[in-house]
Amino acid sequence: MAKEVIVVADKVKKRKRFGRIVKISLLALLLLLIVTYVILQIMYNEGGFTITLNSNETLESGIAIYESLDDTQAKRKLEATPVVFMDNISWKWLPEDIDTRSDGSHNGENYIAYSFYVENRGSQNLHYWYEFVIDDVIKNVDEAIRVMVYQNGEKEVYAKKNGLSNNAEAGTKAFIDDKGDIIILQKRENFAPGDRDRYTVVVWIEGDDPDCVDALIGGALKMHMNLTEEHMNKD
Description:
Shape: globular
Radius of gyration: 25 Å
Order of helices and strands: HEHEEEEEEEEEEE
Helix content: 10-25%
Number of domains: 2
Mean pLDDT: 81
Low-confidence stretches: 32-47
Number of strands: 12
Largest sheet: 7 strands, mixed
Distance between the termini: 106 Å
C-alpha cells in the first residue's frame, strides 16, 4: 500500500512539473510573438517610405527638401503616411491628376502617393543623385511592386524584371539590381541656385504583373529614398 502511494505521489509531481514547463514555454512563445509584432508594427506602419538627405555635405551645399509650398522650412527627413493594407490594383485605376492633386501624402485605396520638393538654396550649380533603397521585403512582394516617379511632371515607372523572360515589364524601366538593395539610381544635373524640383512618388502592387500571384499575399515592403550631392567642376 505504501508503495502505491509513493508511486502515485511521484506521478502527480511529474505532471505538475510538466504543467509548469508547458506554461513557461507558452508564456515565452507569447512574449516572442508580442515582441515580433511590435517590431513589425514599427518597421512597416511607421515610416514605410521616407526621403532623407544623406550627408552633412548635402545640407552645407544648400540642398533643401520639404513637402509643401505652404511650409518651406528645410527638413533632414520626410516621412510618407503608410498604407496599412495594400491589395493589388491596375495602373489604370490611379487618378490622372495624381502628380498635381496635393503636396505631402495623398494616398488612395491600395497605393502610396507622396509629393515633395528639392530646392537649391546654395550659391553654386551642382548635381545631385537620388536612389531608392529597399530596407526589407517579406514574401517577395517586390516581384510585383511598381514605383512611379514624377520629376517636374515627367513620369517614369520602375519595376523588377519579369521572372520568366528576365526582361523589363511592359511600360517600365527595370530595377538596376534585382538582387541588391538599391533599385533606382538617377542623376539630376545642372541644378542651379534657386532651382526647385517637384517630385511625386507612387507605389502600388501591379495586378497585371505576371509575378503577382497568391504567394505574395501577406507580404510587406519597406523602402526609402536618399538624396546625395556632387558639385560641378567650374573651369
